[in-house]
Fold each of these.
Amino acid sequence: AQKVTQAQTEISVVEKEDVTLDCVYETRDTTYYLFWYKQPPSGELVFLIRRNSFDEQNEISGRYSWNFQKSTSSFNFTITASQVVDSAVYFCALSVYSGAGSYQLTFGKGTKLSVIP
Amino acid sequence: NAGVTQTPKFQVLKTGQSMTLQCAQDMNHNSMYWYRQDPGMGLRLIYYSASEGTTDKGEVPNGYNVSRLNKREFSLRLESAAPSQTSVYFCASSPGLVPRNTGELFFGEGSRLTVL
């Protein structure tokens, strides 16, 4: 069975601070994919990033960066110089192939980030 | 580009009433999914359909039925709604077994259901 743990339920930071959202995953599959989704107050789920299990290179996209470490089964997300628009619930998710052409996506419980002006 | 479309976006039901949430995707995806989102619980898989003609239970299937009407459409039915089914429901789709499929899901905008 797959499991995703986001230990931080809620985080508050002051604007321009850096913040790291933690994600720890569990799976026995050797091939898997990791995702981060953002859910702003409007409610839709916005895809941020996808990483596969064979690519441990860290990735940077503007103020966002992701640190994937297989040794610790972690896929952490850092926002640099946070802005009010970053306020949202962030979900980490793990995808593994479940047969018959389907992938099972298991979500963490989410971390609510509040950026205070 | 519509992507994944869910209807209705909001619904209020009384306990015991039935209703169907509709989902359609225009991306020619093989696999479709229904999730529910509850505060502090993240998203949990209710049912999924790997391909047209097949459906399987997810993590929380009790109280729900699904129909994969055709490749585009995947409906979720509550036969006798209960207050515990008050939630936000998300439909999603993925390409399925195609080259380079990476398991990414494409989500609809969600349907907020309240059962009184």
Amino acid sequence: GAVVSQHPSRVICKSGTSVKIECRSLDFQATTMFWYRQFPKKSLMLMATSNEGSKATYEQGVEKDKFLINHASLTLSTLTVTSAHPEDSSFYICSAGRTGRLTNEKLFFGSGTQLSVL
Amino acid sequence: AQTVTQSQPEMSVQEAETVTLSCTYDTSESDYYLFWYKQPPSRQMILVIRQEAYKQQNATENRFSVNFQKAAKSFSLKISDSQLGDAAMYFCAYRIQGAQKLVFGQGTRLTINP
């Protein structure tokens, strides 16, 4: 089956630094990828929709300058948390669906990244 | 805006018994998809079952089945013969036809008692 790889799985950084999280579709092309944030024991909240070759679409309340998204190829989207602060600590998950297929195709999820900002 | 509501933060069931998780949703769309996802302690999201809104027949996947009531906008998940490996967070999710964006419910934590 299709696989989405997310890296790193865990990252600890100092406050004020930037952290980059990668989401790769390993055996299919994905025009669109999604970035979610999940707080402990809470649901997944969509942060943004990453579009290959164009600007990401951010959900209301998500800071575009804080969470930079780049989708430079059909198999890679990156989320950069800039000038991270402790309140950015969270579990981040990406998902992707195949390009060119009917949109009733299921989405595939990465294994997530736990970000801890000290 | 579409919303998904799971009113049971936690549920527990004895091993081998049956449990039903509730989900309601709100939408003005007529064509959409509903999903149940499982998130075990590894936190990897796993698709359990999917239902197309245009289908009247309830979806089933082995021990997992749904009760889809379109008029009531209800989409419950029944797990039969519960197993210890079923312990996880379960999320109900919604997606409209023609889009890939998922809207998730708050989640239900399911505990299986041996």
